[in-house]
Design a protein that fits this description.
Elements: E1 9-10, H1 15-18, E2 31-32, H2 34-43, H3 48-55, E3 56-59, E4 62-65, E5 67-70, E6 73-76, E7 79-80, E8 85-86, H4 94-97, H5 103-106, H6 109-115, E9 119-120
Antiparallel strand pairs: 1-9, 2-4, 3-4, 5-6, 7-8
The chain binds iron/sulfur cluster (2 copies).
């Protein structure tokens, strides 16, 4: 898988044995839009207000999904270690859908390769 403007490719078959490096590890923000908040709450069949109180934190003027600390790793609250995947996959935010083709990594390929074993090229 390639994307115009990026010098690397991505092989999604690497995800099966990766252990979710992009959903775990160092603490970070997983930003969600208002539309995405509604979509995830709907997927979980939760009232949006309860969903916000349970799973979100405010970061400046935006919202991020919470993390949970598992064996020293900051896992996204929706990462399922047993299933080795995202428990809200069909409603995951754009930030997750667009990984690893982020502007941040455009010129940081070595750093990206360290995180994601699916990077080729
Ligand atoms: S870090 Fe890369 S290989 Fe691992 S789960 Fe994320 S996208 Fe897949
Ligand atoms: S929402 Fe899903 S894909 Fe995104 S960081 Fe959390 S577990 Fe990973």
């Amino acid at each position: 898988m390639t994307q115009e403007g990026f010098c690397y490719a991505f092989d999604p078959s690497a995800c099966a044995s990766c252990g979710g490096n992009c959903c775990t590890g160092e603490s970070g923000n997983i930003f969600v839009s208002v539309t995405e908040i509604k979509a995830i709450a709907t997927l979980l069949e939760m009232e949006e207000s309860l969903f916000r109180r349970t799973f979100l934190r405010k970061e400046g003027y935006r919202y991020s999904l919470l993390e949970k600390v598992v064996k020293g790793s900051y896992d996204c609250v929706f990462f399922d270690r047993t299933a080795n995947g995202c428990s809200i996959y069909h409603a995951r935010p754009l930030q997750c859908r667009t990984f690893p083709f982020w502007d941040y990594f455009r010129h940081r390929v070595t750093e990206l390769k360290h995180e994601c074993p699916g990077i080729v090229g």
